[in-house]
Write a structure and sequence with these properties.
By secondary structure, the protein is of the alpha+beta class. It folds into two domains: about 150 residues, Roll (Nuclear Transport Factor 2, Chain: A), CATH 3.10.450; about 100 residues, Alpha-Beta Plaits. Strand 3 and strand 4 form a beta hairpin. The radius of gyration is 25 Å and the shape is elongated.
Length: about 260
């Protein structure tokens, strides 16, 4: 009898709080899934509002705008294939103030797919929420381990370069400013073949450590040749002014072997 009362209460709740927009909004949310299953960025443009806010799944990004959200969507479309949102559970969302159905959509499911570059597969539980206005998606939240996913399908062997720079005493802030400038490490990261870039400084021995992942050591060598000899910004020469030994203060270690991700 108690179970019957609970079921009746649930039916009464949904029956008395229906939102006429929910059915249409649900179809929009399902189209959002189709974007990634079919690799259809034009469908993404069709269903997303230019006022979009997107709670991105990547660590530290927070809410991003239409343009950045589109870049993220293009990243997934360009890098993964055989994508499928498995066993989806679609639920109506509620206004947390009034606790009434508001036409928003929630979804649980498991994404699967394969990296185009490595052929490695992923399986990823996820949760998504969607808000709507004027027949478009105006807010979406994506909650899954995006970093773990990219690591799981990443290359078995990465081309790792470790560069060190011996900084003159008292010049850390100046070197940091130069490395953080648009002509510094952001340019390195954007160079053809650079996959990932990290930098850290050790105060005890005044040494900068730059850890770089490249598609190949040949592409790194091409970058280094450009940076040292052809870069019109002269950013490297500016940094060398603050290194012990000038240009000799930069030591690069490439052609490393035995990479393994733990």
């Amino acid at each position: 009898m108690r179970k019957l009362l609970i079921v009746a209460s649930i039916l009464l709740f949904y029956g008395c709080n229906t939102n006429p927009d929910y059915k249409a909004n649900l179809e929009l949310a399902k189209k959002w899934v189709q974007v990634f299953e079919n690799g259809d960025i034009e469908l993404w443009e069709e269903i997303m509002s230019e006022d979009l806010l997107d709670q991105a799944p990547l660590y530290g990004m927070g809410e991003v705008d239409y343009a950045t959200s589109k870049q993220i969507a293009e990243f997934y479309i360009n890098n993964y294939t055989d994508v499928k949102f498995n066993d989806p559970v679609w639920l109506p969302g509620i206004d947390t103030g009034s606790m009434s159905l508001d036409g928003s959509v929630r979804a649980y499911g498991v994404w699967t797919g394969k990296s185009k570059s490595t052929g490695r597969t992923f399986t990823l539980p996820s949760y998504h929420n969607f808000d709507f206005a004027d027949g478009k998606i105006v807010y979406t939240g994506e909650y899954f381990d995006a970093t773990g996913m990219t690591n799981s399908v990443g290359p078995v062997d990465r081309k790792v370069v470790v560069a060190t720079m011996k900084v003159k005493e008292g010049n850390y802030e100046k070197v940091k400013e130069l490395l953080d400038a648009e002509t510094g490490l952001p340019t390195t990261r954007a160079y053809d073949g650079c996959i990932h870039l990290e930098a850290t400084y050790n105060e005890e021995n005044n040494t900068y450590f730059i850890i770089e992942y490249w598609e190949s050591f040949e592409k790194y060598d091409a970058y280094l040749e450009w940076r040292l000899n052809d870069d019109p910004s002269g950013a490297a020469d500016e940094v060398f002014k603050y290194l012990v030994g000038g240009r000799n203060g930069l030591v690069t270690n490439s052609d490393n072997i035995g990479y393994k991700f733990y």
